[in-house]
UniProtKB/TrEMBL annotation:
Protein's membrane topology: Multi-pass membrane protein
Transmembrane segments: 12-30, 51-70, 82-101, 139-172
Protein's name according to its UniProt entry: Protein-S-isoprenylcysteine O-methyltransferase Ste14
GO molecular function terms noted in the UniProt entry: methyltransferase activity
One Pfam family per UniProt: PEMT
Keyword Chaperone annotated: no
Domain of life: Bacteria
Organism for this UniProt entry: Kordiimonas lacus
InterPro entries, per the entry: Phopholipid_MeTrfase
């Protein structure tokens, strides 16, 4: 039976911490330098899909952070050790890196949640990683989730992957409706040229 290594046990919490530090830092940076409130989701009531995605993310992150400090947690949650779990940490890191680069590619247009309306001078982003995928941030998130399944294959990670796929697919549809309404033909042309995922 494969054993849990330090990288598969401590790697995910470190990556989660780095992603959170990056995210909060990016929010503060955009607020201070561009006067942008990234948290568009706070400007309106959160819908059930966004709330569900948030709960799934919270549960998965808490589980991954708790694993090193509660050794019996994996047994209680029926996690099956996997010989190639270290590759899962690499997938998680690549996912976070893709999400970070995608946020930078969006510049001051990056938002968490859909705003009520497009802000002045907010362009349609089609460069950087957005020339390969219309949703590279979500591609990064899904790679992170797939990596978590490889690191700790069990009900929590598998459910997180499946539920996140469902929630993210619904969020993408809402975002695409918003972009089609705000950018019209420009978004239609972009949509025809670049795939939703990869």
């Amino acid at each position: 039976m494969p054993s849990i290594t330090p990288i598969t046990l401590y790697g995910p919490p470190v990556l989660i911490a780095l992603a959170l530090i990056w995210g909060f830092g990016r929010i503060l940076y955009l607020r201070r330098t561009a006067g942008v409130s990234v948290l568009a989701v706070l400007g309106r009531k959160r819908n059930p899909v966004e709330a569900g995605a948030g709960v799934v993310a919270l549960v998965l992150n808490l589980y991954m952070i708790a694993r090193p400090f509660w050794p019996s947690l994996d047994d209680r949650l029926m996690v099956q050790p996997f010989a190639y779990a270290h590759w899962g940490v690499l997938l998680m890191a690549i996912g976070i890196l893709i999400a970070m680069i995608s946020q930078m590619d969006m510049g001051r247009s990056w938002r968490i949640g859909l705003p009520e309306e497009l802000e002045e001078d907010q362009p349609l982003i089609t460069g950087g990683l957005y020339q390969f995928s219309r949703n590279p941030i979500y591609v990064g998130i899904m790679l992170f989730l797939l990596g978590s399944v490889v690191v700790a294959p069990g009900p929590v990670t598998i459910a997180s992957l499946v539920l996140s796929w469902i929630f993210i697919s619904l969020i993408i549809r809402a975002e695409e409706d918003f972009l089609a309404r705000e950018f019209g033909e420009a978004f239609d042309a972009y949509k025809a040229r670049v795939r939703r995922w990869l």
